[in-house]
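User: Quick sanity check before I run a bigger batch. Here is a single chain. Can you write out its predicted 3D structure?
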Amino acid sequence: MMSYIDLKPTLAEWPYDAEQVSVRKILGADEGIRIQMRVELGVLQMEAEGRPDSQKPCGCESLVEYHRKRLARHEDANGTSLGFVLSPQQCQELRFEASLYYRRYVALFVLEEYTNVAKDTSHNLKIFDLCRDFALEPEDRTCLEPFRPYVLMMDARARAHDAIEQREYASALAHVNRGIMSIKDCYENQGQSEAMENSEELKMLRGLAMEINEQMPQDSLLTARKALRAAIEQERFEEAARLRDEIDKLSEQKEG
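Assistant: Done. Predicted structure follows.
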């Protein structure tokens, strides 16, 4: 029998707590940063950068990057995305990759590394879009869609908390409101308008919006306009668009 390291001392030192997600960062033997999550029967270990399992599928940073490059080559050669498809096996592999990134962004949220959470949620949304738009089989186009509202919610929360840490409250509120609109669009596109009423994702974001409003300086409209000017000057145009939406809403509230 080969000799392996017994994890019992590690597990005893770090007890499992069913009431919370237990996460920590460690320095690996190769000086690389790892993320560990305590689970019922042991410890999950993930890379802090790149694909969580350290794999480089087809020589790329991730599988979604590989398929997006395939799509770009197809479009360059044909002038259209028509004819580009993902096989059932490829869709299954993409779903597996999404599960890896899901575990890591949950861990990163606990660690309050919100910028990295947003990177991983954005990664998974790209997987969702690829499968929805290019899967060969109908079931592969739809099987991830029920999870889209959750990923959109986590993405909005991460971006909002990141903005709150910078005391950019108007920007934080804009991220939340954009997330709410995206989730509503998601339910409507899936023909589930009634399910919107009981959406835990929408409840979470509305609650966060209330918290941000309480923290926001009194003259929030002036703060938002200053943030918009700064975003335009620094060419952060996506944030500027969110801020314009938020200024419109704040202006309507003030007039009301």
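The mean pLDDT is 90.

User: Great, the batch can go ahead then.
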